[in-house]
Each structure stands twice: as structure tokens, then as C-alpha cells.
Amino acid sequence: MDFLAWSAVGQKCIEATLLTLLPSLDAAPQQLHEAMHYAVLQGGKRVRPLLAFAAGELTQANPATVAVAASAVEMIHAYSLVHDDLPCMDDDVLRRGKPTCHVQYDEPTALLVGDALQSLAFQVLAENKLHVDQSVQLKMVRLLAAASGSRGMAGGQAIDLESVGEVLNLEQLEFMHSHKTGAIIRAACLLGLYCGQTVTPATHASVNEFGRLIGLAFQVVDDVLDAEASTDTLGKTAGKDLEQGKPTYVSAMGLDKSKTLALQLREEAMEILTEFGDRARRLRELADFIVLRKF
Q1: For 192-214, what is the mean pLDDT?
Q2: 20-63 pLDDT tens trace
């Protein structure tokens, strides 16, 4: 299959898997469960699950197993978006081309949606058999927990909020975004990897570094698109970073240098994959998709 066909299959698979893992709409409390479905389903490009599927190909992982682990990652990602959009955070009204969760429902419901999705993500990782070795599955739970917490995504968001109106240098920007955006992207790659055959320390290190590089590239491109693309194209409010005085790669380097940096990060990520040969085909294609999507 070409990349578009492969990604369409992966997106359909993750949508179906998420639907089976989310609470039934008939179960109480119905509004909370409806809002969880609203926040998670039928939205986004599913880049993180696709990265998990692609990394799983390095260890011949069963795609159905990867889909479960990737669903946990996507639940964490969706919860973070719901909370990021709240008035106490970024105060946004549009996400994935539709009203944000707190606009569609209300702020207390949106807060609980995030809480419930975070809890469900770890329930999913714990109660489904993802590996024959229970110590490996425990490692996967620990990996996503660390990527989500104060030393990962939540910590990066805290730095982001503290930095509004500040000027950050490139080292500070990289530290912030390697936590806020990159940690979950690295986790997606590694969880997919660990769903398959035994992972050597060298392979873990290579895939982790690929995730770090492509996670940073993802954020650089996001900053560029926020400055260049329209709201209709993005599916969220364009120009919000500039309006809120947030430090970005564009504000620190300008558009042209930011685009050059994204391409450089892509090149470094591709170099990491050389050792894996044809098994890394989908990771290479995803690296291209992430960096070149609007350049």
C-alpha cells in the first residue's frame, strides 16, 4: 500500500478500537460519556497512533495489539486538548474544526472529560494483554505515565503558561516542547515498539531519539502553520500564539529559519532510521508527512 492507503487503514483501525474502549453512551453518567466520545472520535489526523503502528513494524508487532496501546496514547492526547482549550488555559473555542468540548457542553463537563480520559488510558494499558512478559507491559504503563506527567506533557504545558510574554532562547524552547509535545510522541513510538518482539537497549535508544527529533519538528511546523495557515485549514484558531504572546520558534527565529530547522530535524530523524532498513518505511513516510504537510 502507498502511504495514504496505509494511513487510512490505520486511522480506521484506531477509530474502531477507540469506540470499543470508550464507555457506552447508554451507561451513566450519559452526558460525560457522550462528551468523551465527542472529544476523542472523528477528529484529527491520528499522527500519534500512526507512529505507534509504524514503530510496531520494527518488532513485527500485531497491529491489533498496537491499536490498543495507541488508543491509550490518543486518550491522553485528547484529554490534553480538552484541558488546553479551557478558559483557564488557552481559552479556545475551536478544535478539529468543531466547537471545543467546554463550548459544546460546559466547563465542568470538559474538566471531567479530561480526568476520565486520563484514567481510562491507564486502565486500557493495564487490563489488556499487550505483551507476554508482564514486566514489559508494566514498563509500557510507566512509560506513558512519565510522558504525561510533570516531567513530560503536563510539565511542558506548565512552562508554556509561565512563559507567556517572555522571550525564550532556542534551548529553552526545545526543553519546553520536548516535554509538552515531544514526550507523548516519543511514548507513542515506544509503545508501538514494545508491543512486538524483544526490544534491545540500542533499538529503544534509536526509536526514542527518532521520536524526540520528530516531536520537535512537529512543534516547529505547528508554530509555522499557526503563523501562516488559516483557521479553516488548521481546524483551530489561527494566530492564537502571537495574540497571546506565547514564545514560539517563529517568534524566536522567524519563518524561514523555522522552516529550515524543521527540515534539519527531519534529516536527522531519517538518519536514525537507516539501521532499520525497509522496516522503517512507514516511520520515514510519517516523518515526511509531519514536516512537509504544508511547507
Answers
A1: 97
A2: 999 999 999 999 999 999 999 987 899 999 999 999 999 999 99
Element holding 206 (H helix, E strand): helix 201-228
Residue position matching grid coordinates 479556545 = 92
How far apart CA 202 and CA 170 sit, in angstroms, is 28
Tens digits of residue pLDDT in 95-128? 988 999 999 999 999 999 999 999 999 999 999 9
Q: 20-34 in b/e burial notation, b at 16+ Cβ within 10 A?
A: ebbbeeeeeeeebbb
**Helix (H, G, I), strand (E, B), or coil: what is residue 273?**
helix
Angstrom distances, CA of residue 3 to CA of 204, 243, 277? 24, 36, 17
Domain coordinates of the chain in residue numbers? 3-292
What number of other Cβ atoms are within 10 A of residue 46's Cβ? 22
The pTM for the full model equals: 0.94
CA angle 87, 89, 90 (to 5 degrees): 80
Which CATH homologous superfamily contains domain 3-292? Answer: Farnesyl Diphosphate Synthase (1.10.600.10)
